[in-house]
Amino acid sequence: MHVGATLMACAMACAVALSAAAGQGDNVLRVCADPDNLPLSHQSGEGYENKIAELLARDLGRRVEYTYFPQRMGFVRNTLRQKDATGKQFRCDVIIGVPKGYELTATTQPYMHSTYALLLPARAEFAVLKTAQDLLRLPPEKLSSLRVGVFARSPGTDWLLRNNLLQRAVVYAAQSGDPAENPADTVERELGAGNIDAAILWGPMAGFLAQRHGASPAWRAVPFLPDPHIRFNYEISMGVRFGEKQWQDELDAWIAGHQAQVNEILATFRIPLLDAGGNLIQASPENGT
């Protein structure tokens, strides 16, 4: 057999093997996602994870199909690990966003490194704040009157405790009983109603809300830089089933070759991004640079 033909046959066989390993023999990219968790994912396709899934599927020559389930307890069990009615095929083959090293899935190399942020409304006393740490430099009478929205067991709670401001916290449950309610919804409602003066939340959500409230008076999202004592920054990967090494390797190769395009998607949501050293490479979510 001609060498070129041999290589082509091998490439085709390898592609079939990779597809079969992830249940993709029918040219479908099956994605596990939350149907109502903007800015991450949404059944309308508006989330940044949806956009990344579309880019991935296009490059793999597949079409996207979703298995939706609220990202609560049991999410992985009811999506990535569950088979369809025939019992022959898993319902979905990849979760677009999980923390690097997530214990419930194997994880790809990270495609996003982001951080928590301080979300501020347009108020005169906040105009001079350039970093989250600057909040502590407000006059004592201002600082002692603030109500800061944070989520239970989050870095924001730890930060307020460390700076003797826990009494200024308005603490929300990390997950409500309503699957249609997510942290971005909670903060948007509470900050918009004036029930809190500021909030500390995951950077992608803070950037998204700053974008939605970008008209005057504008909200601002000010990122927290890496801290030696409180972990604000996390690397985000894709999650796959344990044992599907070929599929994991294929996704790793795709991420490595498409990081610039992924970053463009993330930038449209004003997500604060960090480099490998923890330095902010997107100056601030509100200006989209």
A few lines on this structure:
This protein is an alpha/beta fold and 289 residues long. The chain is 32% helix and 20% strand.
Keywords:
single chain, 289 residues, alpha/beta, D-Maltodextrin-Binding Protein, domain 2, 2 domains, ten-stranded mixed β-sheet, 32% helix, elongated, disordered C terminus
Q: Report on the biggest sheet.
A: 10 strands, mixed
Mean pLDDT: 88
Whole-number total of structural domains: 2
User: Percent of residues in beta strands?
Assistant: 15-25%
Q: Structural class of the helix and strand makeup?
A: alpha/beta
SS summary, helix count: 8
- Any low-confidence stretches, pLDDT <50, length ≥5? 1-21, 283-289
Number of E strands: 12
Superfamily at the CATH H level of the largest domain?
Periplasmic binding protein-like II
| CATH fold name of the largest domain | D-Maltodextrin-Binding Protein, domain 2
